Amino acid sequence: MIRSMTGFARVERQGDWGALHWELRSVNHRYLDISLRLPEELRAHEAALRQRMAGAGLRRGKLDVQLRLAPPAAHAGALEVDHQALAALVDLSREVGEQLTQAAPVSPLEVLRWPGVVREPQTDLTAVQAAATEALDEALAALTATRADEGARIHAMLEERLGAIAQRVAGVRQRLPEVLENQRTRLQARLDELQAAPENDRLEQELVLLAQKLDVAEELDRLDSHVTEFRQALGRDEAVGRRLDFLLQEFNREANTLSSKSQDTAMTSAAVELKVLIEQMREQVQNVE
Fold it and tell me: Bridge partners of 20?
């Protein structure tokens, strides 16, 4: 079953360490391109998280992933002193003060301004990492389900258009004998109008040449073959977006040839309808994984 490259998922987790939520968005792309944004506290785990996303079964699409982490309400605006950093700073200040003859006293406010002395309350990053990993797996599963649902809708639309193409092809094939007979009648009427009496062999040769110019049986056979191959590709359990796009190029080539050979209003109309159906399919296939 095909899958779309468009999807969205959002998963939240809460604990003593605060709250986090993942937000995943994906759009169509030539290959799998992951853009990951993490809070500073979890930067060290970026490689492991990327590997987890790459192994989630997503084959194509531009994946925009963001993790937001908020401290618990009790920590909102709270600050604490890093006593180890403070002790080191005091020791250094005393050492420098002993080298100066007229050292001014150090203001507590100046000490608090020193980088690293004041910090936000520490969070248990091990628990945060475990919760983030679990929530990411859930978000990836939700994203995959969303893409599968959209893929099912695209599949139904493509099947409908394939049926319409097969119907148009069958209509043109059924009309071919009538088209050739109309051309024979038209040629004979033209000869009668000119009061020309060509040899029967010569007339038959002209009719054979005309039939060859108007013969689109090969194009119709290829269109039927492309319909069959397209349906087979839709049933594959793999990324088939590029294959489908290539097949639609072949569809379009045959439709153009059919149009150029047409000498009949109904056949010309059928060729135009084929092009419309093919273009509708191409727009949807651009979003298939």
Answer: 13, 69
Range of the domain at 170: 149-285
How many angstroms separate the CA atoms of 65 and 272, rounded?
Answer: 43
Burial 192-210 (b: 16+ CB within 10 A, else e): eeeeeeeeeeebeeeeeeb
Answer yes or no: are the C-beta atoms of 227 and 162 closer than 8 Å: yes
Whether residues 36 and 103 share a domain: the answer is no
Beta bridge partner(s), residue 25: 8, 64
212 CB-contact burial (10 Å; exposed 0-12 / middle 13-18 / buried 19+):
exposed
* Start-to-end C-alpha separation, the chain: 10
Give pLDDT tens digits for 72-88.
Answer: 755 555 566 667 776 77
Same domain, 62 and 86: no
Kindly report, residue by residue over 228-240, the tens digit of the pLDDT.
999 999 999 889 9
- Separation of alpha carbons 219 and 53, rounded Å: 44
